[in-house]
Amino acid sequence: MDREMILRVNVTPLNDKEIIDSINQRIQAGLKSTIIAINPEKIVRANKNEALLELLNSATYQIPDGIGVIIASKLRRGAIQSRVTGIDLMEQLLELAHAERYRIYLFGARDTVVAKAAEEISKKYTNLEIAGFMHGYEQDTDKIVSDINHCRPDLLFVALGSPRQEFWIKENLDKLNAKVVQGVGGSFDVLSGNVKRAPRVFRKTGLEWFYRLMKEPSRIRRQLVLPAFLLKALLNRKEDLV
């Protein structure tokens, strides 16, 4: 699978439909797939942490979640054309599970949140089967893996926050029987109705970050990463092509 490299981090240039089609083909072939969302903040952290860099680049799909990744690609005349957010891809995977009758498992978040997310998913996607779920505060990894494998899910969604969820997936992937494992951050909070997403107009125009900044002004320090990231990505484009 082709990748575009931005500051040493691989990014999958496929759009959401192409990713879903590719994942389904891999499921049918019995292959495992891992999905990690990539944004500027994560790229900057990875360039300071070799273990995180290796982890991100080892995933099957590195989806271009942040609008900054799209801008960086365009500035470098790259191939990434559209943003693929973690929660949007998760919902499309739920639609796929609904169509193909795949089994899913939810791991992470608070017990009330993951239970409510499972309830809401069941209401919306009646053909998929929620094989099981577990909150993210369980400390016994063997117990978690054992329960997941006992439930035999085709798709596993892990909501432990980044990069904890990515490290957990990598450390346990060989022990898991699920065919697709996606780190989904705070998606259970949204699916449970506990947190509302930005209005569609903000999401369509790539301004979801601005909406969240208005709601949470304390995020300003995180957003200041973007200008420096874009400049560095532009100046280092030749190094990434080597």
From TrEMBL:
<dbReference type="InterPro" id="IPR004629">
    <property type="entry name" value="WecG_TagA_CpsF"/>
</dbReference>
<comment type="function">
    <text>Catalyzes the conversion of GlcNAc-PP-undecaprenol into ManNAc-GlcNAc-PP-undecaprenol, the first committed lipid intermediate in the de novo synthesis of teichoic acid.</text>
</comment>
<keyword id="KW-0808">Transferase</keyword>
<keyword id="KW-0961">Cell wall biogenesis/degradation</keyword>
<comment type="similarity">
    <text>Belongs to the glycosyltransferase 26 family. TagA/TarA subfamily.</text>
</comment>
<comment type="pathway">
    <text>Cell wall biogenesis; teichoic acid biosynthesis.</text>
</comment>
<dbReference type="Pfam" id="PF03808">
    <property type="entry name" value="Glyco_tran_WecG"/>
</dbReference>
<keyword id="KW-0777">Teichoic acid biosynthesis</keyword>
<keyword id="KW-0328">Glycosyltransferase</keyword>
<dbReference type="GO" id="GO:0047244">
    <property type="term" value="F:N-acetylglucosaminyldiphosphoundecaprenol N-acetyl-beta-D-mannosaminyltransferase activity"/>
</dbReference>
<dbReference type="InterPro" id="IPR034714">
    <property type="entry name" value="TagA_TarA"/>
</dbReference>
<protein>
    <recommendedName>
        <fullName>N-acetylglucosaminyldiphosphoundecaprenol N-acetyl-beta-D-mannosaminyltransferase</fullName>
        <ecNumber>2.4.1.187</ecNumber>
    </recommendedName>
</protein>
